[in-house]
Amino acid sequence: MALCSITSQAQTDTADSVKSDTIPHKESLLKRMDDKLSARYYHSKYDTNYVVRPKEKWLLRLMANQAANYIHAKGTVNDVWSKYDLHTKRNTTFSFEVNYCDIAVSLSLNPAKISGSSNRDYEFNFEYHGNWLSFNLNYQRTNSWTGDIDLKDIHHMEEDALNMKVFSLTAYYTFNHRRFSFPAAFYQNYRQLRSAGSWLAGLAFQSGCIRTTDELKKRNPQAPEVHIDAAHVGIGGGYGYNLVLGKHSQWLLHLSILPTIVVYNHNELTVNDTQLSAKHMRFNMIFNERAAVVYHFSPRYFVGTTFIMDNTVFDDKAVVVNQNRWFARAFVGVRL
Question: What is the dihedral of CA 297, 298, 303, 304, to 10 degrees?
Fold first, then answer.
């Protein structure tokens, strides 16, 4: 009995020792992680006379987002003239974002999906705005194209007639990256204290396909079966400017434009069983525009709005296509 008592007490002491060692170890690990994140967060290569880090490491934002797509096209294919003025449904979402030392997690809510809408459109956006390199990635899948059309006896296009899938990527390099900050305008994890601008170098890539659907054939058996596959790569340059107003730099107004000339394109059009390749383009460009307005009530509280738009213009004498995609966001935020 004495031996069992001694053994039991030894096991209890060992368990308490392991437990007491584990808690400080976990606390030490969390502290080391926090120290590394903080060191990276506060380490900045900006000119602090123009751009600074907020002292608060937590950033919370409540956002309302809306996006849509438009296509205007006209021309003659296989001796058949047609004109299209089409648009998709507007996609509206609400998001809540929690950001700690530039590590962010967000939760999005689509009211249309909750209400049971039959809209099957899908869009994915990913933005990164760094000190010197920024990019915007977008993927869109939509069946909600509708609008006016002039093609033989067809004058209006209902939803579910066309299915479009498009992937696009825009990347740009900021030359004056020590004094001009994209994140200050789009992420608010930096503060722009003085006005500054920068020349930009950019790359644009776009690839996608458009297909007529079985629903269109059921509604109009005479409608042609159309398949369009396209890919474009553009390079170019532009300019961006952050205008700071107010005694305490409360207002930030951002505007940038990046036109790119398409240096490679691969386009194929199939109407019924006839396949055509695109002719040499007379004018083939992709434009990327950005705008933002941010107002700081105090160093901690702010509101604002951002706007992103991509325009593609293709002209090969026979066919002219102008596609416009826009994404708008309104937000309110607090730093803790």
Answer: 90
Amino acid at the residue 46: Y
Tokens in use for 8?
């039991």
Residue 45: beta bridge partners? none
pLDDT at 290: 93
pLDDT of residue 26: 63
The amino acid sitting at 80 is V
Secondary structure of 248-294 as H, E, C letters: CCCEEEEEEEEEEEEEEEEEEEEECCEEEECCCCCEEEEEEEEEEEE
**Single-letter amino acid, residue 66:** Q
> CB atoms < 10 A from the CB of 108, how many?
11
Of 104, 101, 171, nearest in space to 133 by CA: 171
Cα radius of gyration (the chain):
27
Q: Is the pTM of the predicted complex or chain greater than 0.70?
A: yes
Q: Give the length of the chain.
A: 336
Written as six digits, the tokens of 176 are 């004056």
Q: What is the number of H-type helices and E-type strands within the chain? A: 4, 18
Write out the H or E segment, with its range, that includes residue 95: strand 91-100
